[in-house]
Amino acid sequence: MHCLVIPFPTQGHINPMLQFSKRLQHKGIEITLAPTLFTYKKSMQELISSITIEPISDGYDDVNGLFSAKSIETYLESYQKVGSQNLSQLIEKLKSKGNPIDCVIYDSFMPWILDVAKKFGLVSAVFFTMSCAVENIFYHIQQKELKLPVEGHHVLLPGLPPLVPSDLPSFVNDLGSYPPFLKMLVDQFSNIQEADWILCNTIYELEKHEVDWITERLPLRTIGPTIPSMYVDKRLENDKSYGLTMYKPKTNVCMKWLSDCADGSVVYVSFGSMAELKEEQMKEIAYGLKNSNHNFLWIVRESEEPKIPKDCLENITREKGLVVTWCPQLDVLSHKAIGCFMTHCGWNSTLEALSLGVPMVAIPIWTDQWTNAKYVMDIWEMGIKAQSNEKGVVEQEVVEHCIKEVMEGERGKENRRNATKWRELTIKAMDEGGSSDRNINEFVAKLVV
Length: 449
Known about the structure:
Elements: E1 2-6, H1 11-26, E2 30-33, H2 37-44, E3 52-53, H3 72-96, E4 103-107, H4 112-119, E5 123-128, H5 132-142, H6 170-173, H7 179-187, E6 197-200, H8 208-215, E7 220-222, H9 251-259, E8 266-270, H10 279-292, E9 295-299, H11 310-317, E10 321-324, H12 329-333, E11 338-343, H13 347-356, E12 360-362, H14 369-379, E13 383-385, H15 396-407, H16 410-430, H17 435-448
Parallel strand pairs: 1-2, 1-4, 2-3, 4-5, 5-6, 6-7, 8-9, 8-11, 9-10, 11-12, 12-13
Helix pairs in contact: 10-11, 10-15, 13-16, 15-16
């Protein structure tokens, strides 16, 4: 049995699908991963993996890949046109070599891949890389059950807890901010009724109500968290790496520095591989960290470094801080020195913190991060969302307060207890007979029949 896996070409989408591919391979399924040619050349040529890689063109093979496109619409149109042809050729090539594809697993951002799979009579599985709650919101929009713009102070939708507009993804709450992204996210559901499988990178126990509601309408299965096995159930020996990083981590520097810190004393700060913060926000975070009087490890990508004044950077790191351009996040989050994680609440980072039992200070920036932050604070109760001012900036006093609340206060103790509970549930879900493991086994069993 042979699956062709096609991820959307960003790190936060490739890694979950690559990790899921490892799980399938461990259960006896042959995998061919088809990233874009640009992604392969930039980040995957040195990838050490037993998974076969067959890159395809999206029409943006040089310079900056999808980031060199004039707009996301231009890019998606190109990928659909060029990618459809290249994907068809790849399927035909593998068949002619006596190694035909049986199933196509594709990122939900690219619904056109379903048409290619159907053309060849292949089993199709759409893969959601966001939470079930967030997918439910976009499904409600696609079904016209949530009218835009959102009116009123409360959002009451079946399959979701009571929300306020600011808990919704930014493209929904701030309508008109990024219309092409909103369209792309709503279009995930354009032909979903025709897919054979719908796989979601979440944990059933984490979103029971949300999953139960959507599975009454769509054949969705939870298969997460898609993080390396050695950090969760340890069933895939030596599986410690996602295998792909767009940036080079300063591993030795980070781990040596953490080893000199007391247990639970460090605030780990990272806003992911893509989020861009305002200069004013960077400065407020810098002084909030300093004034909290806690050790901190802050990841600031090279492109973001100029936003922090040099004298400010030297001042805040003099005694208690380390600022580096990138780090091995799973190794850092699982280190005993880490006391909390200040995060943008991207879904991968949120799942990693949940899986490793680390309380969070949430500073969402855009897209699904607002909804994830709502769940972190109010549903899972393992962190606090920092409130921003009227300009959308979280001020240094708020940063300081949130850190102290999670690291020192009574609320922090409750957050840590809940974080431990979610970690245990996560391990159980991925372990033999757990909810995610059962769903993956069901998927594999149906493929091999």
